[in-house]
Amino acid sequence: MAKTLKEGAAYNQRDIVDILAEFSGFKDRVEKKFKDVAKELDGKANEHELWVGVYMIASDYADEQASRRKVVVDQIQKIS
Questions:
Q1: Do 26 and 58 meet the contact criterion of CB atoms below 8 Å apart?
Q2: What is the 3-state secondary structure (H, E, C) of 19-58?
Q3: Closest by alpha carbon to 55, among 13, 21, 17?
Q4: Dist. CA 52–CA 34, nearest whole Å
Q5: Which of 5, 16, 40, 45 makes the best surface tag, with the fewest CB within 10 Å?
Q6: What pLDDT digit, counting tens, does each position of 22-58 carry?
Q7: CA dist., res. 38 & res. 56, Å (int)
Q8: Residue whose C-alpha is closest to residue 2's, from 68, 37, 51
């Protein structure tokens, strides 16, 4: 979903709510797992921008990993 945000497409209200819910869930998971990182971002003047940056990086990484897995699976299926 984050990749489509970068492309500048238009969204309806439901899509925006879904994106915000996904971002909020991501932020909660990061705060629980990486308390030191969350403390570093807390209270900064640009805290929201930093969180969005972390989210975008994580989304890009997840998309990249998923595409790599798909290529490997496709290659294995071709070999079989």
A1: yes
A2: HHHHHHHHHHHHHHHCHHHHHHHCCCCCHHHHHHHHHHHH
A3: 21
A4: 16
A5: 45
A6: 888 888 888 888 888 778 888 888 888 888 888 888 8
A7: 16
A8: 51
CA distance 28 to 20: 12
Statement: the pTM of the whole predicted model exceeds 0.70: no
Tokens at residue 52, please? Answer: 């969005």
Q: How far apart are CA 46 and CA 19, in angstroms?
A: 20
Separation of alpha carbons 29 and 33, rounded Å: 6
Rg (CA), the chain: 16
